[in-house]
Amino acid sequence: MADEYGAFKEAATASSTVAYLCPNCRAGLIFDPSTGRFACEFCLSDFSVEELAGTDAAARAKAAEEAGEEFCSHMNDYVCPNCGAEIIADESTAADFCCYCHNPIVLQGKLVGQMKPDKVVPFEIDRAEAERRFLGWAKKRVFAPRDFTGAPQLEKMQGIYYPFWVTDADTAAEMNARATRVRRWRQGDRLYTETSHFRV
C-alpha cells in the first residue's frame, strides 16, 4: 500500500499539493488507503495510480493548481486587530468586517494614491437596528422563503462603504420648451376655456 501511495506522490512532483480530478466526471478523487485506489464519490468510479498516469488527470491537476496560484496572487491576508482572526480579501478591497467578531476594519495599505478618500463617514445605525429594519421589511413580503430571514442569512449582513466623488464643472446648456396655460370661467349659462401656448 505504501508503495502505491509513494508512486502517487512521485507522480505529483510539480507541487506538494495536487488535486486529482475524475477522468469521467471531473469531480475530485479521494485516495482510499485500504484499497490503494482513487475513488470518485459522484460517479462511483475508482482508479489505480497506473490508470491515472495513463490519462490527463495529472495535467489537469497541475492546471488546477496553477489556477489556484493565480487566484492566490490577487489575495491578501490580514489580522483582525480586535480578535486576532485571519481576514482574507482580494487586492481591490479597502474595507471589510471580521466574520468572527463583526468588527469593521479598514485594510491598511489599500487606501493610497488618487483613490484615497478624504473622509470615511461612519454608519448611521448599528447592526442591531439594521437587522430590526430588515426583519420589519421582510415581514411584509409574504412570498419570501423562510430561510431568507433566518440566522445564517442575518449573519451575512454587513455594512458597505460606497465611495462618491465631488467634482466641479463649467457647463453651458440651452433648452427650448412649449408651455401651456389654461383659464376657465363661466359667464351666464356659458363656460369659457382659454388656452395660451408659450415658447420658453
Structural summary, described in words:
The chain has helices at residues 2-11, 49-53, 57-72, 127-139, 151-155, and strands at residues 29-32, 37-40, 46-47, 75-79, 86-90, 95-97, 104-106, 178-187, 190-199. The N and C termini lie far apart (92 Å). The chain is α+β, with helices and mostly antiparallel strands and 200 residues long. It has three domains: 2-72; 75-120, no CATH class; 125-162, no CATH class. Helix content is 24%, strand content 23%. It contains five helices and nine strands. A hairpin with a 4-residue loop joins strand 1 (29-32) and strand 2.
Please estimate the helix content: 10-25%
This entry's quaternary arrangement is single chain
Give the overall form: elongated
SSE arrangement, N to C? HEEEHHEEEEHHEE
Count structural domains.
3
Strand order of the largest sheet: 1-2-3
Mind summarizing the main beta sheet?
A: 3 strands, antiparallel
Distinct helical segment count? 5
